[in-house]
Amino acid sequence: MTGSAQNSHDEILAKLGQLAGRAIHRYDLPDGVTLRLINVSENATYRVDDPATGKKWALRVHRAGYHSRTAVASELAWQAALKDSQTIITPSALKGRDGEFIQSVEHRGLPEPRNVVLFDWEAGSEPATNDVAGFELLGETAARMHQHVKGWQRPPWFTRHTWDFDTSLGATPHWGRWQDGMGMTEEARAAIGETAALIEKRLENFGKAPSRFNLIHGDMRLANLLMDDRAVKVIDFDDCGFSWFLYDCATTVSFFEHQPEVSGLIQAWVRGYRRVETLSSDEEAEIDTFVMLRRLLLVAWIGSHSETELAQSMGAGYTATTIPLCERYLSRFGQKRGAAPTNSRSGFWKRMFG
Fold first, then answer.
1. Residue 41: pLDDT band by 50, 70, 90 thresholds?
2. 158: burial class by Cβ within 10 Å (0-12, 13-18, 19+)?
3. Residue 115 and residue 133: Cα distance in Å, rounded?
4. Residue 308 in contact with residue 176, Cβ under 8 Å?
5. Measured between alpha carbons, how far apart are the two ends of the chain, in Å?
6. DSSP letter for each residue of 141-194
7. pLDDT at residue 348 is higher than 50
8. Residue 5 clears pLDDT 70, i.e. is over it
């Protein structure tokens, strides 16, 4: 990022902090609470602390233009339904003084008002990338959420993004074009382009039956999961929408898909999932495709969110380490670069990680 772009980003963060400071007065919070920025991705999330009691809350300031007010209300409706049914542990949104969960807050230095939501704080720590038993619990948790969706009657006004090939890697991507990823070389463009074409074909064959494609969390990466003893808590439903159930599996290994421990973690997730829901051998075999779909989508996200610390920490290296994953995926399903895809199914992760 250039110096001028960094300065602009810093200025926006300063204005968002001021907006968040105004937003907390919309809620029935104690006097003297403090704000601390803890995360910036699609949204800016702040921890709100009451020094007198030690109580905490999470304040989320939404990114401009990403979700409508109705879409945010839809997210909160599903999250509340999951909590009320005791399907999962997830934080509750809190109403403002006006009785509304979603507050629209303005700042004169920003071009439009921002939607703001306040949540209860949930204790816990991010799962470790070597926690095989924990990943079994993540699989169980995802299965319970998927089971809930199949029986839940959504409100008639419910609206969320659809995350299919077209809106991920195709003509209308929510997170920008993968071609604009950081450090995109000719070699990367060729490997990713051929991989994306193969993914598209396989997803078309896999289909969008409701038993496979429905409402999902969409971002169950480790940063959005909390382990409290052996209880799994799910936070940040900002990317929930309509996609393949198995995409939730792929998101658990976000940003470290190329690491050798992924094989065991995926297998653990599947074991946990099957304790609650059915998963056919054909579906299990297609997890490879969803991991690659997520990987390429994150290449696009890094390129379109270059101002964030997470994107900068991944940088061009993430694109470079995507190339061998593409080569192995093409070898697994397409035999060689440029070859037609095959229906061979077994051994991908063993070949990939030895």
1. confident
2. middle
3. 37
4. no
5. 37
6. HHHHHHHHHHH----TT----B-SHHHHTSSS-TT--GGG-TT--HHHHHHHHH
7. no
8. no
In this structure, what token pair is assigned to residue 26?
């919309």
Please state, in angstroms and rounded to a whole number, the distance separating the CA atoms of residues 125 and 134: 12
What are the tokens at 28? 């029935």
pTM given for the model? 0.91
What is the largest distance, in Å, between two alpha-carbon atoms of the chain?
66
Task: Collect all residues with Cβ–Cβ distance below 8 Å to 71 and sequence separation of at least 6.
Answer: 159, 160, 161
Distance between CA atoms of 283 and 293, rounded to whole angstroms? Answer: 15
CA distances from 166 to 163, 182, 197 (A): 8, 21, 11
Identity of residue 214: N
Q: What is the DSSP string of 85-144?
A: TTSSB-PPEE--TTS-SSEEE--TTSSS-EEEEEEE----BPPPTT-HHHHHHHHHHHHH
CA distance 195 to 293: 9
- Residue 137 has phi, psi (to 5 degrees) of -65, -35
SS3 letters for 280-309? CHHHHHCHHHHHHHHHHHHHHHHHHCCCCH
CA torsion angle 336 341 344 350 (round to 10): 50
Pairing label, strands 93-94, 114-120: antiparallel
